[in-house]
Specification:
Blueprint: E1 2-5, H1 8-24, H2 30-50, H3 52-56, E2 59-69, E3 72-77, H4 80-106, H5 112-131, H6 135-153, H7 159-190, H8 207-224, H9 233-236, H10 242-251, H11 253-269, H12 271-277, H13 279-299, H14 304-324, H15 328-359, H16 370-373, H17 375-388, H18 395-409, H19 413-439, H20 453-471, H21 479-492
Parallel strand pairs: 1-2
Antiparallel strand pairs: 2-3
Helix pairs in contact: 1-2, 1-5, 2-4, 2-5, 4-5, 4-10, 4-15, 4-20, 4-21, 5-6, 6-7, 6-11, 7-8, 8-11, 8-12, 10-15, 11-14, 13-14, 13-19, 14-15, 14-19, 15-17, 15-18, 15-20, 15-21, 17-19, 17-20, 18-19, 18-20
């Protein structure tokens, strides 16, 4: 890709940081505070979307803020991979902001100013991760995201929330330490930490060094990606308010982990060198086991958010599995699933939040007949459930199709079987909820009574988009083209 100077990547990062001041100052004026939240979300998405035409032309907007030393700088650069993550996160932040307004007003939540300010910082850090031009910049924003999310996890300040927050910090800050070691080793081996499609390690790098570097990336990005056995912080963090859970599972935190794997494998180590080292086989086996075990655990969860949490654990490993396979098709599937899973899973968490607000029901066993009271909510839930099971015409089918094709291309039939079996397990733990909601007899839910429009409209939008992205995968908004270009640059040596 041709590099072009642009302030837009920096502005996309800064806009929500600037908004923090305007969110905090009118502390007792919620309408003003929430207006600034929405304005910042819209501005961020507009800035990110405005860079899409340049990216599609093969141009990469970039800006270097300052150099630390030769080969290390704080710099932003937008490529095919970064724009996928940036578009997804910035768009979903708009919907999450509206949903959050309806959610916190309905309870009402305490310390709402801290809540919205922390959200804004998280999305600023997410943009920094998406548009980082090198590993150093990514590490900075990666740690900012970890710290900024902590107040959201402990928001309710109950003993369970404090415990969940501490566990979250211990796991993710430990992963951050390993990421610092990975940064140092990358610089030692390459003399630079700039991302380059196909990898930056010298051709004569010792196999042991490649394995060591990959292990450090696994112990760092593997935590945020919730790969077993590094996953237990994620279900524990479900004590947070539902919009925070959506942030954790769909928009930012866990997606930062799998995005980090994409950068490490495709732009630092390189797929060829990783494949030759044999290290990718271990991670592939680990993710395959995570997919199956997480799905089996999800089947046993009666708490709705816990079931969604273990579903997330499994689906994150779909993405990482695709990245470990030496196949462009698998990479396309993995990158598409970053977006597709985000759209479907945020729909499910929005639905869980709406159900909690209207009925105070948090368990699957309490949802008999709820579809008669909340038909829009449960219809959206059903669409997302179909997609996560990998059934057409919802977008989850598209990404799973390419993951299966990539497994065939890589000669890994065992992963095809695991992906298909996982789809059946997904159907088992999601369809049982849908059947219970619409067909189980109940005297409790007898009249139409949905949550507020601020909550219903976002979940309907994400459900409809999940459907449209499955029917027109190459048009909304060019995610398939972007994923294909990213995979081609990594495997073909072209691009960034």
């Amino acid at each position: 890709m041709e590099t072009v100077y642009s302030l837009k990547p920096l502005l996309a990062v800064l806009v929500s940081l600037v908004a923090v001041a305007f969110i905090v100052i009118p502390n007792q004026r919620p309408n003003v505070r929430e207006s600034w939240t929405i304005l910042a979300a819209l501005a961020k998405f507009a800035l990110v979307a405005s860079m899409l035409p340049l990216i599609l032309q093969g141009k990469s907007p970039a800006i270097t803020l300052f150099a630390i030393s030769p080969g290390i700088s704080l710099a932003l650069r937008v490529d095919y991979l970064g724009i996928i993550f940036g578009l997804s996160a910035s768009f979903l932040w708009i919907l999450t902001s509206f949903f959050s307004m309806g959610y916190v007003r309905s309870i009402p939540e305490h310390k709402q100013t801290r809540y919205f300010a922390s959200f804004a910082i998280c999305l600023s850090a997410t943009m920094g991760i998406a548009f980082a031009a090198n590993l150093f910049t990514l590490v900075i924003f990666y740690e900012i995201l970890t710290i900024a999310t902590y107040p959201l996890v402990i928001h309710r300040e109950t003993p369970g929330a404090i415990f969940g927050g501490r566990k979250y910090l211990v796991y993710l800050l430990t992963g951050g330490v390993f990421l610092l070691f990975a940064l140092a080793l990358t610089y030692h081996l390459s003399g630079t930490v700039d991302f380059q499609a196909g990898g930056i390690l010298p051709a004569l790098t010792a196999k042991s060094s490649v394995i060591m570097l990959f292990t450090l990336f696994l112990l760092s990005f593997g935590v945020k990606s919730a790969i077993m056995p590094m996953h237990s912080w994620l279900p524990t963090a479900m004590v947070a308010p539902t919009p925070v859970s959506a942030l954790l599972h769909a928009v930012a935190v866990v997606k930062a982990g799998v995005f980090g794997f994409a950068r490490a494998i495709g732009f630092i180590i390189g797929p060829s060198m990783l494949h030759e080292s044999g290290a990718s086989g271990f991670l592939a086996a680990l993710t395959a086991a995570t997919i199956l075990v997480a799905s089996l655990i999800a089947l046993r969860q009666d708490n709705l958010k816990a079931r969604l949490a273990y579903s997330t654990v499994g689906h994150l490993s779909y993405i990482v599995l695709g990245l470990t396979l030496f196949s462009p098709s698998a990479w396309i599937g993995a990158l598409l699933h970053i977006v597709n899973h985000a759209m479907m899973k945020i729909t499910l968490f929005f639905c869980a939040g709406a159900i909690h607000i209207k009925t105070h029901c948090d368990k699957v066993s309490q949802l008999n007949g709820i579809g008669r009271q909340m038909p829009l909510t449960m219809a959206a839930f059903a669409i997302a459930a179909v997609g996560l099971a990998g059934i057409p015409p919802v977008n989850g089918f598209i990404s799973k199709w390419y993951l299966v094709q990539g497994s065939f291309d890589a000669g890994q039939i065992v992963f095809v079987v695991i992906l298909l079996l996982s789809g059946l397990l997904n159907a088992g733990y999601f369809f049982s909820i849908v059947v219970r909601a619409f067909f189980a007899p109940s005297d409790k839910f007898t009249r139409f009574d949905e949550a507020s429009k601020l909550m219903i409209v976002p979940l309907v939008i994400t459900a409809v988009l999940s459907l449209l992205m499955g029917i027109f995968p190459d048009r909304i908004p060019y995610f398939f083209q972007l994923a294909s270009s990213a995979a081609q640059s990594v495997f073909g040596g072209g691009g960034l």
